[in-house]
Each structure stands twice: as structure tokens, then as C-alpha cells.
From TrEMBL:
This is Uncharacterized protein. One of its GO terms (biological process) is L-methionine salvage from methylthioadenosine. It comes from Rhodotorula diobovata. Belongs to the eIF-2B alpha/beta/delta subunits family. SUPFAM superfamilies: NagB/RpiA/CoA transferase-like. One of its GO terms (molecular function) is S-methyl-5-thioribose-1-phosphate isomerase activity.
Length: 559
């Protein structure tokens, strides 16, 4: 038997168990497993492939894994989580996994007899839970090192509450109830992810505006590197918020933002201040430039939204906010607040009711005059500063310009800059080290020396329970770096084709390309960790990691 076939055979046996004819009455009708009497060693290569892909890796799971792997660098963690949840729901509804782990039989369930017609619900629940835990979650965890913490935490929250249901007798929790609970757990997790992202954005925006609002700085500098999806979701909020606040106090993409925005932050965003965003990027990936372009689109859309809000403020097209001095549709020539009050009281259509008209005019005359004087300031044209409120400046810079940018902020006396780091994982331990994209260490070290605040922005799912064997992620294809030289000044000075070919050839020992994707940033450089659970210290992250470690032990412990 070829070595490749033996390897696949061992993998299949490890997943499905060696079959014994008539052991549990759960043969796959018409399958090669049944035709060969359950003897895995007698399966041919094509039979083994069929058995593996029908029992362990069905098309639904195979397609989802292929899509997740192909788009792992383009989709955010939330989109990848949605992909995994949709795949899980499809597997649950199809009851995929009942034929897997045929060699396992719970000790608490009596062995089958000759009168057994089907598998007990306890056995099916046990096998389904094992399949979801050891096959589905296992494969998604290995899609990429960056998304592995998210997938692991996602399936941990789904499967841990299902384990007691799987261990319960069928009389208490039948198979149908167990599958319904699995479906509900997946749907609940999808909602929880979105609410967690909204909470993280809310806390991050409050933390960003905190220093500038209390110190009344005219310029707030925020710096980041790369194109982390969590950081991108955080930065789009202040861009939209400070642009539209003069037209609508609750003008934000996230409806929960205003709930935590303090009065000082609202005042800062309402004044002609400046929100300066600097995104560092390293060629040839240009991930920082991609984030800058996305934020620029948000700024342009927000300006248009602000103009629309100002237009609606003085028209009846706005169903939420009407001008207090505008005449109603049925008002007479006088119009204004007085006429509207008379119309509501029914006096406008009564003849000879001069006493009521005089009373209304006396009571609301002062209010009418006050609103008339305040009209221009509240609902009039935009202030002289342009769009009104803070302005947004978006700047892209190379990663080796961090020292120049931060030193310029310090020399001009524009206050303390804020650096946001998007990370792949928060490593366990009280040190607070994080695994972040390459260049984050340089940015954090420079920011620390020049007096800037360094905050990690991450979901609590990124906090690991145990340190991985290696902290370095998979390396980029070296041709990405070589392709980035095309059209540059260096190529105009000297031909780089020969050097690029030699650097891309692994057989050339004297020249190579450094294409590592991530690095470990020491926790001593980080001032805090912004998560959906709050603003944490390194000790707080370690406690969450310990809680996750206990949950993982409980899930993977044998009953």
C-alpha cells in the first residue's frame, strides 16, 4: 500500500474508529464501509476518499473551509465567524456526524443486543458532540493562525453548554431537543458577536476622546498600523461622529456610541478641533493604505450625511425632528409656534374665542421670542468653520516614519498622541505580551519613548488560554515583496530582475527575503487593553485566559 494511502487510512481510522460489523447497527447503507464489512484495511484509495468525504468532511464543511482559507486575509474576524456559524447550522440541520466515531460508545449507555434496531439517542448525541468538537472546530481552528483564537472561542461558547445536554438521558433531553439547542446556541452566538463588536467600539471611542476632551486639546492624534478589522471598526466611529455631530448629536454608525459619550467629548467634537488619523503601512502589502482609503470613504459619506441632516432639520420631511417654529401644514398665514399651539387646542377654527387666543399668546409669547433668537444657532446655516464641529484629517505614512510623526506631535505641543494596536492574539501570562502584525513593535517602542499612549484593541476572544508552541505566524509569499519593487525608484536606478529571481529561489543560500508576518510586542510597552468586557490591564487579560483554560478543560474532559 502506498505511503500516502496509509497516512490517509490512519487519519480516517483516527476520526471514525475501526468498524466492527453488527456492533451498533449504524452501517451506512450502500457505502464502501458496509460493502467491505467494516474492515478499514481492505478499503481501496477511492473507497477511502469516499468514506472520508462522506462521513468526516462533507461538501458543506469542505466548501466552508476552502472559502474561509481563500478569504482569510480579506474577511474580518466577524465575517469569518459568520461563515463558521452558517456552516455549523447546516451541519446540525443535516445531522452530519452521526456516522463518525463509530468506535466510541458511552459507558453509561447499555450495549446493543440483537433486538436493537437503531442507535439510542444518548449515543447519537455523544457522537454529534464529538464530531462538532473534534472535527468541525478542529478544522476551523487551522484555517489561519490569525483567526484561530476567534474560532476556538466561538465553538467553546457554543459547545460547552451542549455537553450537559449530551450527557443527559434521552428521557430528559431527546435528540430533537439537543439539535434544537445546538441551533439556538449558534444563532445566539451570532447575535452576541455583533453586540460585542458594538460594545468594543463604544468603549474605544470613549477612551480615544477622553484625553482630548478633558485637556481641551485642539488636535487629537490617533495612530495605528496595518488594516486590522477591529481597529477599522473603531476608527470609523469617531470619523463619522465628529463629522455629523453638529447636525445631529446622535449621528453615529453605532447607535450605542452616544450612550457612553460624555458631555466633555460632545463639546470637544462640536468645536472646530481636528481629529488627525495617521495609518502606517509597509509595502508591498499596503494594508495601511487600504485602511486609510476606507476611512476616507467614511469621511466623505459622513459629510454628505451631515448636509442631509441640516436640510431635514428645517423641513417636514424629517419624521424624527421638526423645526419648532415651522408652521404646520394646515396653519394659516400667521404660522409659527403660536398658530400651531392654537391649532392643537382647537381654537384656530373657533370663531369669537378671543379669550383663549389672548391666553395662548400671553403664555407662549416669551417662548416664541426666545426660540426665534435661537433659531439661527440651532437650526440655521452651518457655522463659519465649514461643516461645523471637528474636522478629520487622514494621513498614510510608511512604517519607518513613526518616530518623525510622533516627535512632530510632541515638538508642536499638541498633547499626547494615542496609538491603537490591532493584534492577532494576547498571549497568556501576567506580562501582557501580544502577537501583532510586523511593525507593531517598532511603533509601540517609539510611541513609548516619545510619551504617547499605546492601547491594544481586541476582542476578548483573542486572549489565549495557553501559549502556543510558536508565536510566529505563517510567512508571506516572498514574491509579494518582490512584486512591490515594480515601478519604484529603486528599479529605475538598477535592474532588480536578477536579484528578485535569486531571492525567490529557495535553492539560493546566499540571498533571501525576510517575509515574516507577525511579531511579539512586549507587554511593558502597552498601557491598556480595550475589549468588549472593558478596559483591562495585563492581569485582567491573564484572568480571562485562566477562565478560558478552565472552560476548555471542561469541554474536552471525557465523561
Amino acid at each position: 500500500m502506498p505511503r500516502r494511502t496509509k497516512v490517509r487510512l490512519r487519519a480516517c481510522v483516527r476520526r471514525t474508529g475501526r468498524l466492527k460489523p453488527g456492533s451498533d447497527g449504524a452501517h451506512m447503507r450502500g457505502s464502501p464501509l458496509r460493502l467491505w464489512g467494516g474492515d478499514m484495511s481492505r478499503l481501496k484509495h477511492e473507497h477511502l476518499s469516499f468514506a472520508y468525504h462522506s462521513v468526516i468532511l462533507p461538501p458543506a464543511l469542505d466548501d466552508a473551509l476552502h472559502l474561509a482559507f481563500s478569504l482569510r486575509t480579506k474577511l474580518s474576524h466577524f465575517d469569518l465567524a459568520d461563515l463558521a456559524l452558517n456552516c455549523f447550522l447546516e451541519l446540525v440541520q443535516a445531522r452530519v456526524g452521526e456516522s463518525a466515531f463509530r468506535g466510541s460508545w458511552p459507558a453509561r449507555v447499555p450495549r446493543p443486543t440483537g433486538d436493537t434496531l437503531g442507535l439510542p439517542d444518548e449515543v447519537l448525541k455523544d457522537r454529534l458532540l464529538r464530531y462538532w468538537r473534534d472535527v468541525v472546530a478542529h478544522h476551523f481552528d487551522h484555517v489561519s493562525s490569525a483567526s484561530a483564537p476567534t474560532f476556538a472561542a466561538l465553538f467553546l461558547r457554543i459547545l460547552l453548554p451542549l455537553k450537559p445536554l449530551a450527557l443527559a438521558p434521552a428521557t430528559a433531553v431527546p435528540l430533537a431537543s439537543f439539535l434544537r439547542s445546538a441551533t439556538d446556541a449558534a444563532l445566539t452566538e451570532g447575535t452576541r458577536l455583533r453586540l460585542a463588536a458594538a460594545s468594543l467600539e463604544k468603549l474605544a471611542v470613549a477612551k480615544i476622546l477622553e484625553g482630548a476632551s478633558t485637556e481641551k486639546r485642539q488636535v487629537l492624534h490617533v495612530l495605528t498600523a496595518g488594516n486590522d478589522p477591529v481597529v477599522a471598526g473603531v476608527l470609523r466611529e469617531p470619523v463619522h461622529y465628529v463629522t455629523t455631530i453638529s447636525a445631529n448629536p446622535y449621528g453615529t454608525l453605532n447607535p450605542h456610541i452616544h450612550a457612553l459619550t460624555h458631555a466633555a467629548a460632545v463639546e470637544w467634537a462640536s468645536r472646530p478641533n481636528m481629529l488627525s488619523l495617521t495609518i502606517f503601512e509597509s509595502r508591498p502589502l499596503c494594508t495601511g493604505a487600504a485602511l486609510a482609503a476606507r476611512l476616507h470613504e467614511v469621511a466623505l459619506a459622513s459629510r454628505e450625511k451631515a448636509e442631509q441632516l441640516r436640510g431635514l432639520a428645517t423641513s417636514y420631511e424629517n419624521p424624527w425632528r421638526a423645526h419648532p417654529l415651522a408652521a404646520g401644514p394646515d396653519a394659516g398665514a400667521d404660522g409659527g409656534l403660536r398658530q400651531r399651539v392654537l391649532h392643537e387646542l382647537g381654537a384656530a377654527k373657533r370663531e369669537g374665542n378671543g379669550a383663549l387666543v389672548a391666553s395662548v399668546g400671553e403664555s407662549y409669547g416669551t417662548l416664541d421670542s426666545l426660540l426665534a433668537r435661537a433659531e439661527d444657532g440651532l437650526f440655521g446655516r452651518p457655522p463659519p468653520t465649514g461643516l461645523g464641529g471637528a474636522r478629520v484629517q487622514i494621513r498614510a505614512a510608511t512604517d519607518n516614519a513613526a518616530a518623525s510623526v510622533l516627535s512632530g506631535v510632541k515638538s508642536r505641543g499638541e498633547g499626547q498622541a494615542v496609538v491603537l494596536l490591532g493584534v492577532e492574539a494576547v498571549l497568556p501570562g501576567k506580562g501582557g505580551d501580544v502577537r501583532a502584525p510586523l511593525g507593531s513593535w517598532l511603533l509601540a517602542e517609539t510611541a513609548k519613548k516619545l510619551g504617547a499612549k499605546v492601547f491594544v484593541v481586541a476582542m476578548s476572544d483573542h486572549i489565549l488560554s495557553s501559549r502556543p508552541a510558536t508565536t510566529a505566524a505563517a510567512q508571506h509569499d516572498p514574491t509579494e515583496l518582490l512584486a512591490g519593487w515594480s515601478g519604484t525608484l529603486a528599479e529605475e536606478l538598477v535592474s532588480l530582475d536578477a536579484f528578485a529571481l535569486a531571492a525567490a529561489d529557495p535553492r539560493q543560500p546566499d540571498v533571501s527575503v525576510f517575509c515574516q508576518t507577525s511579531e511579539v510586542v512586549p507587554g511593558r510597552l502597552i498601557d491598556g487593553y480595550i475589549t468588549e468586557k472593558g478596559f483591562l490591564s495585563a492581569t485582567g487579560c491573564d484572568l480571562l485566559g485562566q477562565e478560558r483554560r478552565v472552560a476548555e478543560k471542561e469541554l474536552y474532559a471525557e465523561a
